């Protein structure tokens, strides 16, 4: 890629934002070296690795990449026999620890059925140098201090040091606590000079303690003296310190040699960790700008949905659809210099560069980009009214260079083509240059304010006119790209809004040709029609979402009802049992009363007493409401068999028989539910007619047919999942045992999303990839319960 193009499209600013997401200097180094690739297979791999990292972040939120250090210089010095400092060894151990953590992290995620071939391959390249890490951590703490336990000799020497220091301090403190010391010492403290313990003695008493003078105060009134009584003890202390330092040197030398032995493994580790840091930095940046992975193609096709400029804040930027390389390879954005056109150019150019560098692009899922061998951009500050010859000359030099290099695998971006010279000649030059670039097969977007180029899109095959919408009410552009609608002059409307006399405006209109007026009216009508169509599309989309939500809510309530049916029946049965038990108790009481009456009155029971007892029995019997169930002559005569349509009397729902599960029970399909129902609760309705046609079924209550396969290729991610959800419901209502969903191979994002949804569906029994004759991994076969 041309350095000038990268600078003009501000690719370096994207890299500056990317650096903020790197966790180490290794990742930052790789970001700084990042340039777009022109190799298709490499770009696809770069996008795949970023997508894998994005999936990991989506699942886990973060990765254990803290603690990485660039230890390449440490390794090199250890190999040539140098001794590493404790701090350098601690950095080495920290890096080894992070590599082990990262390796285990990726392997654990892979075990969770997440497909991460690139990240797994990187993790496998790491050799976990656990022994070296533990050896360093056993000898040196995190602050870089060599620990007592680094060796037995060091432990012994440190113990002797502490004992000697204690004896010296004890002896000196006894000296300064004596009564005579109060007048001879400047201060009753023990201090250190030249690594030896001393006391501050007044100048006039310098000979009292003897020993060695190590220092004096700035005034000369105080001398720091090592008393003769502790000279020998200080000498012994220094001797032990020398031995301690030698032992520390020996330990560091041994650890450095250990590092040198693992040179190859450590170099690979550093490279892999730098790669991990770089990949996850790309993924984190993509998450920040709400980007998605573009589908890369060979055909020079560009389809960006709701694309945003990555350097403009999300809450300010206007998203646009940019389509190029299908029915047309050149877009000419016409209209006055009101802004917005240049942003469109830079958005496309920057998205192309980002994609070829392995970065996700700020656009919706399903967006497509191609790999260009070169991206050329002639973009400058062309907003001033007066432009000098030097400006025109510099642009022409750049355009000449572009024309010398452009081919069919190029993307060319012209901003205000032909500006800076006489309008008539500039328009002619612009048409000629566009013809030349278009003839070479390049993908081109050009902006211009010359009205002559409006006709260019109509007179050339493969060229499309476009414009940036302008709001006359606010006197500012909306930055919304209108494909297929050429730009029109807003000078009269703007002048009117700013208060120019209507008479002056009408006079100006008279100087404009009738054809121009007609064209402007036609363009205004096109703009209005497009706005209205987009508004109606958004409203229809909202209604669809509301309908889908209502469908889900109803489906959820139906499922909850059927799930609670058994418990409701059990409660009803228990309540009925209680009523019957109460009735039985009352009946027994009545009978006891009758017997008592008979005994007491010697069987002389009056008729009215019997009538009264009978009435009490009738009142004790529970009132049973008559069932609305009607015995159909058909159900008595017909022997039920699989496939019959029946009415489930307990719910008043229609269903179809699947199989007889046990004596007296059938498995019935009711909508999306399957349940066991007793045969006495079924009413035969009819047997569906067998139709010898293509494998389709009419969904009951609908006026469309359900195919045995659903093709999702080319669908956006969210739309695809909505279609899968609706299709599965329709297939279940149709009673299909098995269907196929075609998602294509592509990047795997759509396949993964579809399969995750199917695994969690309560009616799906099993899913698998298609066989060789069924479409392979581009098809998922779904089996229902």
Automatic annotation (TrEMBL):
SUPFAM superfamilies to which the protein is assigned, alphabetical: DNA repair protein MutS, domain III, P-loop containing nucleoside triphosphate hydrolases, SMR domain-like
Q: Which UniProt keywords apply?
A: ATP-binding, Coiled coil, DNA-binding, Endonuclease, Hydrolase, Nuclease, Nucleotide-binding, RNA-binding, rRNA-binding
Residues bound to ATP are 335-342
Top EC group: hydrolase
- Entry-linked SMART domains: MUTSac (SM00534), MUTSd (SM00533), SMR (SM00463)
Lineage, top-rank taxon, reads Bacteria
Q: What residues does the Smr domain cover?
A: 710-785
EC number(s) per UniProt?
Answer: 3.1.-.-, 3.6.4.-
> Region Disordered: what ranges?
621-641
GO MF annotation: an example: endonuclease activity
Any coiled-coil ranges, and where? 245-272, 516-600
Summarize the protein's role.
Endonuclease that is involved in the suppression of homologous recombination and thus may have a key role in the control of bacterial genetic diversity. Acts as a ribosome collision sensor, splitting the ribosome into its 2 subunits. Detects stalled/collided 70S ribosomes which it binds and splits by an ATP-hydrolysis driven conformational change. Acts upstream of the ribosome quality control system (RQC), a ribosome-associated complex that mediates the extraction of incompletely synthesized nascent chains from stalled ribosomes and their subsequent degradation. Probably generates substrates for RQC.
Instruction: Give the family, as the similarity comment puts it.
Output: Belongs to the DNA mismatch repair MutS family. MutS2 subfamily.
Listed under subunit, the entry gives: Homodimer. Binds to stalled ribosomes, contacting rRNA.
Record-given protein name: Endonuclease MutS2
Point out the gene that encodes the protein: mutS2
């Amino acid at each position: 890629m041309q350095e000038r193009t990268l600078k003009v499209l501000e690719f370096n600013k994207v890299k500056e934002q990317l650096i903020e997401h790197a966790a180490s200097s290794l990742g930052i180094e790789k970001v700084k070296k990042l340039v777009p690739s022109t190799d298709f297979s490499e770009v696809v791999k770069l996008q795949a690795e970023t997508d894998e990292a994005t999936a990991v972040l989506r699942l886990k939120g973060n990765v254990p990449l803290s603690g990485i250090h660039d230890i390449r210089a440490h390794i090199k010095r250890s190999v040539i026999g140098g001794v590493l400092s404790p701090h350098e060894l601690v950095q080495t151990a920290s890096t080894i620890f992070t590599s082990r953590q990262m390796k285990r992290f990726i392997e654990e995620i892979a075990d969770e059925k997440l497909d991460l071939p690139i990240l797994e391959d990187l993790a496998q390249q790491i050799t976990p140098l656990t022994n070296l890490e533990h050896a360093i951590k056993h000898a040196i703490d995190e602050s870089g201090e060599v620990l007592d336990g680094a060796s037995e000799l060091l432990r012994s020497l440190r113990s002797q040091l502490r004992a000697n220091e204690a004896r010296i301090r004890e002896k000196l403190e006894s000296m300064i606590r004596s009564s005579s010391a109060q007048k001879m010492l400047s201060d009753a403290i023990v201090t250190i000079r030249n690594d030896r313990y001393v006391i501050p003695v007044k100048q006039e008493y310098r000979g009292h303690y003897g020993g060695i003078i190590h220092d004096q105060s700035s005034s000369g009134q105080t001398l720091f003296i090592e008393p003769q009584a502790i000279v020998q003890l200080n000498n012994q202390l220094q001797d032990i310190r020398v031995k301690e330092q030698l032992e520390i040197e020996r330990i560091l030398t041994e650890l450095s040699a250990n590092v040198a032995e693992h040179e190859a493994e450590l170099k690979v580790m550093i490279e892999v960790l730098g790669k991990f840091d770089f990949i996850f930095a790309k993924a984190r940046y993509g998450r920040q700008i709400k980007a998605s992975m573009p589908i890369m193609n060979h055909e020079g096709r560009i389809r960006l949905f709701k694309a945003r400029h990555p350097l403009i804040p999300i809450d300010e930027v206007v998203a646009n659809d940019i389509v190029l390389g299908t029915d047309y390879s050149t877009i000419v954005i016409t209209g006055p210099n009101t802004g917005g056109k240049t942003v469109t150019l830079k958005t496309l150019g920057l998205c192309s560069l980002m994609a070829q560098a392995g970065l996700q692009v700020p656009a919706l899922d399903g967006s497509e980009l191609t790999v260009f061998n070169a991206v050329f951009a002639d973009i400058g500050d062309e907003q001033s009214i007066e432009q000098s010859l030097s400006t025109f000359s510099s642009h022409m030099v750049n355009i000449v260079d572009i024309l010398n290099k452009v081919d069919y695998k190029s993307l060319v971006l012209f901003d205000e083509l032909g500006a800076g010279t006489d309008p008539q000649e500039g328009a002619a030059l612009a048409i000629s240059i566009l013809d030349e670039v278009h003839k070479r097969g390049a993908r081109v977007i050009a902006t211009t304010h010359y009205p002559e180029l409006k006709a260019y899109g109509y007179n050339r095959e493969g060229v499309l006119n476009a414009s940036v919408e302008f709001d006359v009410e606010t006197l500012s552009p909306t930055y919304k790209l209108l494909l297929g609608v050429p730009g029109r002059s807003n000078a009269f409307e703007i002048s009117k809004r700013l208060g120019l006399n209507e008479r002056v405006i009408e006079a100006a209109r008279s100087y404009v040709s009738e054809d121009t007026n007609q064209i402007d009216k036609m363009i205004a009508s096109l703009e209005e029609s497009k706005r209205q169509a987009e508004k109606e599309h958004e409203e229809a989309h909202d209604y669809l979402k509301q309908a889908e939500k209502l469908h889900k809510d109803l489906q959820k309530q139906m499922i909850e009802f059927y799930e609670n049916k058994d418990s409701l029946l059990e409660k009803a049965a228990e309540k009925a049992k209680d009523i019957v038990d109460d009735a039985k108790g009352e009946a027994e009481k009545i009978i006891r009363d009758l017997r008592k009456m008979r005994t007491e009155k010697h069987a002389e029971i009056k008729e009215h007493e019997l009538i009264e007892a009978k009435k009490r029995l009738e009142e004790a019997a529970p009132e049973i409401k008559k069932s609305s169930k009607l015995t159909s002559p058909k159900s008595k005569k017909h022997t039920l068999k699989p496939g019959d349509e029946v009415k489930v009397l307990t719910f008043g729902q229609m269903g179809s028989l699947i199989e007889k599960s046990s004596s007296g029970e059938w498995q019935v399909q009711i909508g999306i539910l399957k349940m066991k129902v007793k045969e006495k609760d079924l009413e035969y309705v009819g047997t569906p007619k067998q139709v010898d046609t293509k494998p389709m079924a009419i969904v009951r209550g609908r006026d469309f047919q359900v195919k045995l396969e659903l093709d999702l290729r080319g669908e956006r991610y969210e739309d695809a999942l909505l279609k899968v959800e609706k299709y599965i419901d329709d297939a279940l209502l149709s009673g299909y045992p098995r269907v196929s969903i075609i998602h294509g191979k592509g990047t795997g994002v759509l396949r993964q999303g579809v399969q995750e949804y199917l695994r969690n569906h309560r009616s799906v029994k099993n899913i698998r990839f298609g066989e060789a004759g069924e479409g392979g991994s581009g098809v998922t076969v779904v089996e229902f319960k």
